[in-house]
Amino acid sequence: MGVFRRIFILFLPLLFLLTGCCNIFRSPETVPYRVVTQVQIRYQNGALQSQRQFFREENIRNILAYLRYIDPYGTPKEDPEQAAGRIFDIYVIYSDGSQHLYEQRADQYMRIDGGPWKLIDSQKALTLSGLFGMMPSDPVPVSETHIPPLIRPRI
């Protein structure tokens, strides 16, 4: 029995290594991690145009929940570019500087990052209009503001 115990103890670290349990010791630089830091929404309906920026976690969470809820499906027979109605461009900006663009047209179509247009449920699409109407832009965080450098006059 003692021999099996010694073999088990010797192979235990190898078992942990093979199963990935030692990944907890990996340096954090090797693990890609990003979070959404900002959402910008541009709205257009005919001549009416508006833009909002969201930095607060609660507002970002609401918009991301909408994007998961909308669930695009199928391929439209018509050309969404020619559709009349509301236009929403939603930019989701991540901590690493990357971004995704969600384009919603006429409460019927959506595409992501310039991909193919998909159909969306028009009743679900109205949720975005409600969110957009209820949430004013967030104030720009202090870390995001640009303070111009002082320029000293020549004497």
What does this entry show, briefly?
Helix content is 29%, strand content 25%. By secondary structure, it is α+β, with helices and mostly antiparallel strands.
Please tell me about this protein's structure.
The chain is of the alpha+beta class and about 160 residues long. The chain is built from 3 helices and 6 strands. The protein has a 6-stranded antiparallel β-sheet with strand order 2-1-3-4-5-6, covered by helices on one side. Strand 3 and strand 4 form a beta hairpin. The longest helix is centred in the first third of the chain and has 18 residues. The protein is elongated and about 85 Å long. The C terminus is likely disordered.
List keywords for this structure.
six-stranded antiparallel sheet; disordered C terminus
Topology:
Elements (H helix, E strand, L loop, with lengths): L1 H18 L16 E10 L2 E7 L2 H14 L16 E8 L4 E7 L3 E4 L5 E2 L2 H13 L21
Antiparallel strand pairs: 1-2, 1-3, 3-4, 4-5, 5-6
